[in-house]
Amino acid sequence: xxxxxxxxxxxxxxxxxxxxxxxxIVVSASAEYPLYQPNNGWAEQDPEDWxxxxxxxxxxxxxxxxxSGSSIKGVGxxxxxxxxxxxxxxxxxxxxSIIWCDQRTAAECAELESLVxxxxxxxITANPALTGFTASKILWVRKHEKENYERCRHILLPKDYxxxxxxxxYATDVSDASGMQLLDVRNRRWSEEVLKKLSIDESMLPKxxxxxxxxxxxxxxxxxxxxxxxxxxxVGGAGDNAASAVGTGIVKDGRAFVTIGTxxxxxxxxxxxxxxxxxxxxxFCCAVPGAWHVMGVTQxxxxxxxxxxxxxxxxEVVEAKNSGEDPYVIMDEQAxxxxxxxxxxxxxxxxxxxxxxxxxxxxxxxxxxxxxxxKRANLIRSVMEGVAFSLKDSQMIxxxxxxxxxxxxxCGGGARSRLWSRILCDVYGIPLYTLTKTDGAAFGAAxxxxxxxxxxxxxxxxxxxxxxxxxxxxxxxxxxxxxxRFYRLYRELYSNLKGSFxxxxxx
Length: 507
Prior knowledge:
18 helices; 24 strands; seven-stranded mixed sheet; globular; Nucleotidyltransferase, domain 5; 507 residues
């Protein structure tokens, strides 16, 4: 039997799993690491933390599996997008990685648009200049840390740093490269025009591959510390959302997935490149060669519920500890007692600024309508509903772009919550379903490894054989009608508060 490894370098931790050719998950392992916020709105991680997590989880998985190393035929990588990793001439990490949710680069985004031209930048990269993307981070380092920039010889994304540690190769894939704002997304290659106008040397960037392509092979040194046999091929892999699409079978038109992890995403496959002229959602190359995807992002989706758990749900945490239950299960049980609309309490999930649809680093979280009658259960449900409303924004934009959604798969941590799945289904008004496997990005990376190793003729064929559905949700009409009323008010709130958010940021 042939086996394939999938490694996902996420924001809160790394997950590694081993699958067989039929798509059965043999064994998996996870390891966490910290996120650092040296200033308000900043977010950084240490790439060495990622590498330690990869070494640990790979070694655990291979040891637990008990299989012969020669049976591992390929490795696929996935990871958080947009993070800036800078290496010097000796391949040492120069500074902590500035990751996707960092909001420090508003001035650099304006500079980027000035240098390239706002409309031209959108034409080439399919997206407006965004604080989360990599290009503005590069400009920030060049402006504020000149010595670090002058030492830089290689620029990599998070998963591609792990690729380098595994193979010694500087490489990336088209889906992850799309989020750097340096790629010609239509033609799936670095943009000479953008690089020239930004004075960024292309030699610092990795070579670009399609997701199933073999990009290198595991070195002897990496084999010693990970347990992966030397010579094992490593494929291009994909950014976390593109890999999740493969892991959930979203590889054909009309299909979409919604995921609630640290961030939240609504992702739809499209065989034709389509863009939103207002730049509210992103268009990237996807992990299926020759195709694209559109995605809207809520910066603080699962992060909002995690924040609430940590800061306001101590009784639920204690109850969970005493009962041996997950605190989120207890929180779900509390929220289920609250009616649709959380007794007129609306939450805006802008803890880390927002990407879709506002592109606003200054907006912040809000509970609107809070009164003395509200309990923690109301807060919990309103957070779930507020995140669902934020993700509904993406659905509305997709419809404007002519992208029809027939059904939506739900994955990520939010898929474990029946209540959150039900809320999303009722808010969208579209059937939702969960999958038998909930390891989206890591599983998708492993599938890509199988395609690259020749076990399957295409990504679509591999997904057709490996992915199965679990439970389904049909929208409840009366709930959908009620949510439409709350959603209209939710949309008004940002417009009413936009100027106040800006002034708050200036205080």
